[in-house]
Amino acid sequence: MTNDDYNACVGKNGGFPDYARMAEGYYRAALIVTDNVIETRAGMDAQIYPVLELYRHGLELMSKGIAESVEAITGKIVLRSNHDVATLWKRLFLLLNSIETVPTDICQHVMRSLFTFAKWNPNAQMFRYPHDKTKRVRSLEAETLINFVDLKSEIMSSYDAVQNIASYMADIAQQHQAGDV
Question: Higher pLDDT residue, 23 or 124?
């Protein structure tokens, strides 16, 4: 193998980086780090915040992709411009139910994950920085332990749930744009 075998295709060479594609990268990165921690049993305390940020950002991007589909169908703006995934999903959940019957259990699973993150990290800053601009420490003070095996299971199941909704809504949006609905 040469160094050329390790080139990532980006820009005009790699295709448009849509929400789903970017979200998949964040989810996969979270799983790779999580698998490494589980396998080596090393670096758990140091790697929990990057894993949580990768996972949270993957959820945010996938949610914004779903919002893009919902907007294409309804013409209603779904607040894609902020990082508060709980606020985004409160609006999305209502619009999803008004468009088509999306399985409620899948939506509830996604919302449970998102609201946990919203409680821990409402403005998407806690997992990225140790303190805010006023030097107030950010941490998961209400939590004492986060199990990496359980976290991996949650990452995988929430990705499957969000991916199912995203694919379903993208299909409906495509049908809507083609005039089939």
Answer: 23
d(CA 49, CA 26): 14
How far does Cα 171 stand from its chain's mean position? 20
Question: How far, in Å, CA of 5 to CA of 10, rounded?
Answer: 14
Q: Whole-prediction pTM value?
A: 0.81
140 — phi, psi (to 5°)? -95, 65
CA dihedral (109, 102, 156, 140) positive or negative: negative
Q: What is the largest CA-CA distance in the chain?
A: 54
- The residue type found at 61 is L
Closest listed residue to residue 172, CA positions, set 87, 101, 111: 101
Q: Which residue has the tokens 């790697």?
A: 47
Q: 24 near 57, Cβ under 8 Å?
A: no
